[in-house]
Amino acid sequence: MQQLSVVIITHNEEENILRCINSVKDLANEILIVDSFSTDHTVEICNSSGCKVILHPFEGYGQQKQFGVDSAGNNWILSLDADEVVTNELNQEIRTLLQQEVIPHGGYNIPRSLFYMGRIFRHKETDNLRFFDRTKGRFRFVKVHESVDVNGTVGTMKGRMIHYSYRDLSHHIQKTNTYTTQAAEGYIAQGRRFSKAWVAFKFPVSFFIFYILKLGILEGYPGFLWSFFAAFYGSMKVAKTIEMQEKK
Question: Of 4, 88, 199, 217, which has fewest CB within 10 angstroms of its CB?
Answer without folding.
Answer: 88
